[in-house]
Structures are given as structure tokens and as C-alpha cells.
Write a structure and sequence with these properties.
Immunoglobulin-like; single chain; 570 residues; 6-stranded antiparallel beta sheet
Length: 570
């Protein structure tokens, strides 16, 4: 089973921790104004509807949901009140206010639903657009579904041009139709200044969106209204089965998206669900390369050909479990939540991505699940990939945004197929934000319990590793560092480690001997939290590289990046 339509999702975040634009609490915003004709006379009896546009979060599909509706009185006035919508972080993508009345062209205004809006909705003389739908032989296609989508160019308050789009979902009675026995269709009630693009679907035919058929604006405007025929090619199909990675049984009810790589248009995106045996068939596809993707599934590229069915088998990724706690041992979940539905989100990150691809959120006990291919799992174990957490902190009224704290978690020995044996990682909580040391001098070494390091490190490059030997990722990092110690020391690098939480000194000494650690390991005397804060430590393990002048050149990186960072310092 598949559904159509969709859109891009644009997410804007600003680091202050992380600031995510949103309105808070139960704030109400209003769109008020008047519905008038071309002579500015109020129109009574006009239907005014506010819609919010939502994304499904999977394929980029969109739906419009009513947020308010009324009929104007003699004065043509309207007022629609809604709860303020967030800019990001939810399925909300935008809003519209649409006015209609028989005998007039429809009118609309774009509304972000985050601030009050005053609007005049002018309903002018209605225009008509018509067309025809044919097959490859020029024969009419009867009963094709046609949806008209409108695009206009207006002006901002500053006088700049702006393009505003209205999906045909807003008024299905006026903006949706079917072709007749001659394959023809027609629409009335259209604003004369608007361009019209059509989404056309028919049984056995490829979904076609006419915006791509004419790139020239004048030709596009002419073709959209004059009755020119539109060709619907034969559909391409993808058929297959989704299998459990452990049992090879079909995965019942698996949801996934089919998205073209050759077009960003949302109308070519599909959301599908496998049946009880894990089998599926997706039709209505236009020829070209598509991607099958979904939670728990590997990315699968498929070349779709017109009139053909491409068969595939997808083996689902394996489910892995981990747990993340704050340094005090509590789950890395902020309670009480700083705003409604606030949750600690976890992202899979690689390279320069920040924060990366969202894979889910922590539950109340700090557990999370992630579906990984074998390659992804190996990259996490080798620290070529890692996790980022966005931890809710507070609502900032000055920025009108939710503030998140970004934390890095390396996944070495963190993940288990069995939730009961999941590893544990610890991160600094959101109540305090360590200050970055990048391009700043190192604080005094005497804070770290490393006697004599000042003398040994004079005029030399310094590599510090903050760790907690009670955590497997820290122990693994230290073993890797020990294996490279001789090589690094030959390059004039002074290495030292810092036990950043309370531990039995005898146990620490014993583990150092067994692991063959030859460089010094200090233990923070006094309040470890304050020291970690002063040294900018956000998670453990945490590497800091300082040049010969003891100015920090890198922090919070993986050992696989050490060589590149040292090259930059030379």
C-alpha cells in the first residue's frame, strides 16, 4: 500500500548549545483581515479556512489539516486563532489561509502560524484552465485524476519578489478533477495571475507532475491553460519482500519510502507498507533511479524502467541497543521536561555532519535502539562514526527558541543485540555548558593530579585523554593510545591521561599495569565536575591536543583524526 504527495523539510538550527526555533507553551496567534472583491468591497458568505501543512517525516510527503474555518459576515471580516506552531522539530512545515466563494477566483495567504498576521484576501474574476491527458499513441486516458497546484509571484513588505505556492489539497472540490471520455479536464475559480501545474495519475501510468515539462515561464503559463495534451508514460513498478536479518522471515507491516534521486519534487515520493508476509508492490513510478529507505532498512538503489517491474529483496538491518546516562548515573533524560514533549534525541554521525541523521530518542531509562548495517556497526566500533545527543535544556525567550545541548558519544562496546546487556556511556548533563578550549591556552596541569607534567611538557606538543576507566569506550581509547605511545613520543608528543571520575586508586594502578600503560595517568583531586567544566570536557573519553605553545589545536576528536590534526600544527 502506498500514498503520494510530499515535500522537502528545511531545518534551521543555531548553536548556543543548540537553539531550535519554536514558540513556547500555549501561546495563541491570529490571522485577521477581510475578504474583498477587486473594488475592495467586502464579500459576505466567503468560506475561510486555515490549513497547516505537515510532513510524514519519512518520504517527505505532505498533508493539509484544517486548523480553523468560518464564513464571513456582511463586513467580510475574518479572524482565525491557532496555537503557535514551532518552526522546526515537529512535522509542521507551514500554513495557509484560503478564501473561496462561488462566482469568484479563490484567494490565499501564506501564514507561518508563529506570529499574528493581518491579511486582505482579494477574490477576483475567475479564470479557467483546461487540458487533456493522452498515452504514448496519443489516445485519451479516461478517468485520470488531475490536481491543480497554483504558483504566484508577489511582493514582500520590503518590495522584494516572493513566490508562493498553494497545493491543490487545499480545495479538492475546486482543484481536483478527472478526465472525461475524451481525456479532457477543466478547472474554474482560478486566479488569473497564478501559474497552474498539474499532478496527474492514472491506473497503469507513471505519476506525472507538469512543472517539469516546461522550464520557460511563458510557455509553462500558456500550456497550463490552453488545453494542450499531457503525456502519461507507462508506469514503472518495484516489487519485492523485506526479510528479517536473523530468521529470513518476512517483516510484516514494514513502512518505507520510495524516493527518486533525479527530482526533488515531493509528488514523486511514495510511502508504502509491506503486507503480513513482508511483500510489497509499488506502482505509478516514473522511469529513473529511485531509493528505497525506511527505519531499520538499508538504503537500496533501484533503477525503474517504464512498463517494467523491478524485483528486489531487502534484508532489514539488525537492531542494536545502548544506554546513555548523565555523570551522576541518572538516565540522560531531562525531568521535568523544559517544554512539552521535550526528549533527548540521538543522531548517527559521520565526518563533518552535525548533528547527523536522527535515529530516535532515549526512553525514560536512557535506553535507545538503532538499526545498523554491518558496515555501519563496524564504523561505529572503529570510531569512524559516532553518536550525537541533543539534550533539551531550556526555552530562551530572547531567541524565541528551545535550547539543546550537543553531546558526542563514541559507540565502542556500547551496543548490544540484547537490551539487557547493553553497554553504558556517560555524558555531561545540560545544567552546565563547558567552555571550549579551542585556540585557548591549556589550564594549569595541577588541576589534573599530574605532578611534574609542567616540566616534561615544556616546549612540546601535549595530548591529553580524559577518561573513566569504568567505561568500556574509555578503556578501549586508552589501549589504542598505549599502542601508539612509542610512535607519538618519538615525534616529541607528551601523552598523559586523566581519570575524570572517582575510582579506587589501587584498581586504577592494577589496570594500568595489566594494560601496559607507560605514560602517566592522573586523577582529578576534589570536585571532578568543576575540573571537567574548566577543561571543556563534554563526554568521555575526550581528547585534547595542544601545540608546543600549549594552545589547544583540537578537542573532542577521535584517535583516527589525530594524524591530520598534528599535521595542521606543524
Amino acid at each position: 500500500m502506498c500514498s503520494r504527495s510530499g515535500s522537502w523539510v528545511v531545518v534551521v538550527m543555531t548553536i548556543l548549545g543548540w537553539a531550535q526555533s519554536a514558540m513556547g507553551g500555549d501561546e495563541v496567534v491570529r490571522c485577521t483581515g477581510t475578504v474583498v472583491d477587486t473594488k475592495d468591497r467586502p464579500i459576505a458568505g466567503a468560506n475561510v479556512v486555515a490549513f497547516e501543512m505537515l510532513s510524514d517525516g519519512l518520504a517527505g510527503n505532505i498533508v493539509l489539516e484544517k486548523a480553523g474555518e468560518l464564513v464571513t459576515g456582511d463586513d467580510g471580516a475574518f479572524s482565525v486563532a491557532v496555537q503557535a506552531r514551532p518552526a522546526t522539530g515537529t512535522r509542521f512545515m507551514g500554513g495557509y489561509v484560503v478564501a473561496s466563494k462561488d462566482g469568484f477566483a479563490l484567494g490565499w495567504e501564506v501564514w507561518d502560524m508563529r506570529e499574528d498576521l493581518k491579511a486582505t484576501l482579494a477574490l477576483g474574476e475567475p479564470a479557467t484552465a483546461e487540458g487533456a491527458v493522452v498515452d504514448e499513441g496519443g489516445e485519451p486516458i479516461v478517468g485520470a485524476h488531475v490536481r491543480a497546484n497554483l504558483l504566484r509571484t508577489g511582493k514582500t513588505a520590503e518590495g522584494k519578489e516572493k513566490r508562493e505556492w498553494l497545493p491543490g489539497l487545499a480545495l479538492p472540490g475546486w482543484l481536483e478533477n478527472r478526465t472525461d471520455s475524451q481525456g479532457r479536464f477543466a478547472f474554474g475559480h482560478l486566479p488569473r495571475e497564478a501559474l497552474v501545474d498539474y499532478l496527474i495519475t492514472a491506473t497503469g501510468r507513471a505519476t506525472t507532475y507538469t512543472t517539469e515539462l516546461e522550464q520557460d515561464a511563458q510557455a509553462r503559463a500558456s500550456r497550463s491553460r490552453t488545453g494542450a495534451p499531457f503525456l502519461l508514460p507507462r508506469e514503472g513498478r518495484i516489487s519485492g519482500r523485506i526479510l528479517d536479518p536473523d530468521t529470513d522471515a518476512g517483516v510484516a507491516g514494514a513502512r518505507f519510502a520510495v524516493v527518486p534521486t533525479f527530482s526533488g519534487l515531493f509528488y514523486y515520493r511514495f510511502v508504502c507498507t509491506a503486507d503480513a508476509n513482508g511483500t510489497f508492490t509499488v506502482g505509478g513510478l516514473i522511469a529513473g533511479k529511485h531509493v528505497v529507505r525506511g527505519e531499520g532498512l538499508p538504503r537500496t538503489d533501484v533503477e525503474v524502467r517504464s512498463g517494467e517491474t523491478t524485483r528486489i529483496t531487502i534484508r532489514a538491518n539488525q537492531a542494536w541497543h545502548g544506554r546513555i546516562l548523565f555523570q551522576d548515573g541518572e538516565p540522560a533524560v531531562v525531568k521535568p521536561a523544559p517544554w512539552p514533549d521535550a526528549a533527548t534525541a540521538i543522531f548517527l554521525t559521520e565526518g563533518a555532519q552535525t548533528p547527523g541523521e536522527k535515529i530516535g530518542q532515549l526512553d525514560d531509562e536512557g535506553y535507545f535502539s538503532v538499526y545498523l548495517s554491518q558496515e555501519q556497526y563496524q564504523r561505529l566500533q572503529s570510531e569512524k562514526a559516532w553518536f550525537h545527543l541533543l539534550i533539551p535544556d531550556r526555552y530562551d525567550s530572547a531567541q524565541k527558541g528551545n535550547i539543546y545541548k550537543l553531546r558526542t558519544v563514541f559507540a565502542v562496546d556500547l551496543l548490544s543485540r540484547d537490551k539487557a546487556t547493553a553497554g553504558i556511556a556517560r555524558v555531561v548533563g545540560p545544567e552546565r555548558e563547558p567552555t571550549s578550549l579551542l585556540d585557548r591556552p591549556l589550564p594549569p596541569f595541577d588541576q589534573l593530579g599530574l605532578a611534574g607534567l609542567n616540566e616534561r611538557a615544556a616546549g612540546k606538543t601535549v595530548l591529553l585523554c580524559f577518561l573513566d576507566m569504568q567505561q568500556r569506550p574509555s578503556r578501549n581509547c586508552l589501549r589504542q593510545l598505549a599502542a601508539r605511545a612509542q610512535e607519538l613520543q618519538a615525534q616529541g608528543v607528551v601523552i598523559a591521561a586523566v581519570q575524570a571520575s572517582k575510582v579506587d586508586q589501587a584498581e586504577l594502578d592494577r589496570w594500568m599495569r595489566e594494560a601496559g600503560i607507560t605514560f602517566p595517568i592522573g586523577a582529578i583531586p576534589g570536585e571532578a565536575d568543576k575540573t571537567r567544566f574548566a577543561w571543556g570536557v563534554q563526554s568521555l573519553p575526550w581528547l585534547i591536543l595542544a601545540g608546543k605553545d600549549h594552545v589547544v589545536k583540537g578537542e573532542g576528536f577521535g584517535l583516527d583524526e589525530l594524524g591530520k590534526r598534528m599535521e595542521k600544527d606543524r
